[in-house]
Amino acid sequence: MLLTRLTFFLNAIIAATSLGVLGLVFNRQDELVLSSSMPTSAEPNWSWESCGSSHDLIKIESITIADELAPGEKATITLKFTAQKTVESGAYAYVTVKAGQVQIMKKEFDICEQAQNHGVAIKCPIAPGAHTIRHTVELPKEVPPVPFDVNIAGYSVDIEDLTCLSLKADFRKHK
Q1: pTM to 2 decimal places
Q2: What GO biological process terms are annotated to this protein in UniProt (predicted)?
């Protein structure tokens, strides 16, 4: 049950991040924005970085989570990206998830199918240009107090590099 709920949460992130759609800069002070070009003074319990190249078909501009990630709470994830060319159905992502030092999942996901199955507001094919997606998920109460590392490598149906992300979330209590 816990693994199923964690997998649902991860699938929602996967659908959003692999499509390259995390991040809209908000004006409200209670929301945190992380961008590869924008420093932040807050100490969030999550972070991301691109592990892709300048040739990726999806350029992720920013990832926003409205509040700190907390077990049993809702998390609104927003992402902003630019598609360099059309992303067709059949695009996929290899996802590896570690809880602490233990690998708990290594799986291939159909990106468009995951987006559709989890109600993410984007449909394939994704047209070239700028896109923004906002999606809310509820984190399971049973999320263990450990750091998670999620690595996502996305590819087009033609096996072109789509995007690559390294996401970290730390559910340990910090003083």
Answers
A1: 0.76
A2: sterol transport
